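Pair request: fold both.
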Amino acid sequence: MIQFADDIVVKAESKGDIQRAVEEIDEMLNTSEMKINSAKTKILVCAKDPKVKADVYIGN
């Protein structure tokens, strides 16, 4: 995880890893009464197969 000001970059090897990381960050922020802004959240997938997707869910 890379942090700069109020931005966070998460690198992961799999969709499951990125989902777990987002869930952990979401839990951490909730303890400070903060939340992830899904409208500003971006996902970049770097894969040889162009069909690879990473649908990540925030919160419930």
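--- second member of the pair ---
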Amino acid sequence: MLSKIYSHRVSLNTCKMYHTFTAVFFLVLISVTMASSCPQCTAEGKQRTGNSSFQIKDGCWEYSCFCNCDGSWNCPTEDAREVLATFRTDLFSAQAVKMFHTLIAVLFVVLISVTTTSGCRQCTVNGQQYRGNSRFQFTNGCSRYNCMCNCDGSWNCPAEDTTNDCSGSNIGTGGYNYNCRQCQLSGQTYAGNSRFQYTDGCYRFNCDCHCDGSWTCPGSRTENIC
């Protein structure tokens, strides 16, 4: 008796499974048949499958649309969403981080500069004060010197960095090289890389002004004029 009941239940379950499978298959078949029999929609230059959903982007907005079985399509505005909002938020965040890093770098450079120069002595050149451990320029006649004020208060102006502001040539009249520093002697100024004379009492000195601003007056060229 029990075996008959069990067999009857198995038959009922099998029958239910068959009917369910048949119903699902029938629905799928109807859907495929309807989709294949529906004309496509042409939206934004693209072909969309009939009786199906698709999306369209228009500028900052994305629309959820539906292609009807008659070839028409619609995109309800209430389903639209702004796609630029997320991008704008990410962009602003990236820019803020970049600006923050740049600001930190600038502050770091300024801090190093202030720390480095605050303990240095100033240089006094032609009555002007220049900050220690910094570069400066000054002009003497036609020569413009590009100099360095050292941290100990000394300064140097390399001849190779000196330019002539009076003409396009570095060689002036008389063959003097304006790229050289001038020599100062007894209140007189003499062009660099040239010879000059000066008199002190009974002695006339014939001297050389070197390109670095130093000078020499050899005894062999000194004359007694008394």
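Observation on the second member. Residues 168-176 have pLDDT under 50 and may be disordered.
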